Amino acid sequence: MTFREMVDGVLTTYPREQQVRHDRSVTLEDIVAEVPACYLRFYDTFDHEQGDPKPWEAVFRAHVLRCVKGWKGETTLWKYLKQKPFLTTQLGFDGIPDQSTLWRAWEDRLEDVRDAVRDAAEVVVDIARYHDIPAPEPSFLPNQPTDTVTRSKSKDTLAREKAREVWKGAKPIVEDCFHLDRSGNASIPEGAFWEQQSYFGMRSDMHPNDGAQSFATDSTRTETPSGDSHRLQTKTLGVERIRTMLRDTSRTLVKQAKAKDKMGRKQMAAIDFTKGDPWSGHVERDSSGQNQEP
Question: Domain spans of the chain?
Answer without folding.
Answer: 3-152, 156-259
